[in-house]
Amino acid sequence: MATEILMPQLGLTMEEGTVDEWVKHEGDEVKKGDVVLKITTDKLSNDIEAEEDGVLLKIVAQEGEDVPVKGVLGYIGQAGETVDAPAADAAPAAAPAAAAPAPAAAPAGGRVRISHLAKKIAEANGVDYTGLTGSGTNGRIVKADIEAAMAKAAAAPAAAAAPAPAAAPAPETVDGIELQDGDEVKKMSGMMRTIAKRMTQSAQEIPTVTHVMKVDVTDMLAFRKKLNAEYGAAHGIKFSVNDLVLKAVAKALREHPEARVSYAGKNYIQRAHVNIGMAVSTDDGGLITPVIKDADKMTLTEVSKASKDLASRARSGELTAEEYHGSTFNISNLGMFGVESFSPIINQPDSGILGVCATEDELQMDEEGKIEKRQVMRICYTHDHRVINGAEAVKFEKAIKDILEDPMSILL
Question: Where is the Peripheral subunit-binding (PSBD) domain positioned along the sequence (predicted)?
Answer without folding.
Answer: 113-150
